[in-house]
Amino acid sequence: MMIFENINSLSIVDDFVAKYGDKIINKYSHLKDLGIKICIDTQAPALLKALDDCKDSPYMSNPSCNLIIKHKDTFNKCGFLVNEEMAIIAHELGHIIAFISKEVPKEQLQKEYQADDFSIFLGLADELKSALKKMVEADICPDSNKDMQKRIDRICEIQGDGYK
Ligand SMILES: [Zn+2]
Question: Which domain covers residue 53, as residue numbers?
Fold first, then answer.
């Protein structure tokens, strides 16, 4: 079982671990004892700047601290379904796993693709795609819309169904 430190007792985190924890540990057994912290808009001073840098994202990760943060206000603008939120959490976890495995690409879009692959690995490709669409539609981060569309297109290509 993965160790998730569910700081704000978000039920989605418990559900995520119950649903996907075993599958993750089966593939990444070295993560078994890794404590991943997850919380809502923390006020911890060390994290305020990181939060400020990423407040246009519903979730962010800080891989060097094994930390995932949910931005409630930004999150609420998008109207995600539960499975879409799971896909986003999986994406953030993908960033952390890449960091731990020391396999982080230099280019930002490649980093996003790599984290997307982790959602896809957990069977959440459709959910990630619709989550990305909602982020583009909500226009929470206009500068990222183009890259998010590229990520949607890439998932479609991987799925090979031509659906957009
Ligand atoms: Zn990302």
Answer: 3-159
